[in-house]
Amino acid sequence: DSGVTQTPKHLITATGQRVTLRCSPRSGDLSVYWYQQSLDQGLQFLIQYYNGEERAKGNILERFSAQQFPDLHSELNLSSLELGDSALYFCASSGRTVGSYNSPLHFGNGTRLTVT
Amino acid sequence: AQKITQTQPGMFVQEKEAVTLDCTYDTSDPSYGLFWYKQPSSGEMIFLIYQGSYDQQNATEGRYSLNFQKARKSANLVISASQLGDSAMYFCAMRRQGAQKLVFGQGTRLTINP
Question: Which of A60, A107, B80, B92 is most buried by a 10 A CB count?
Answer without folding.
Answer: B92
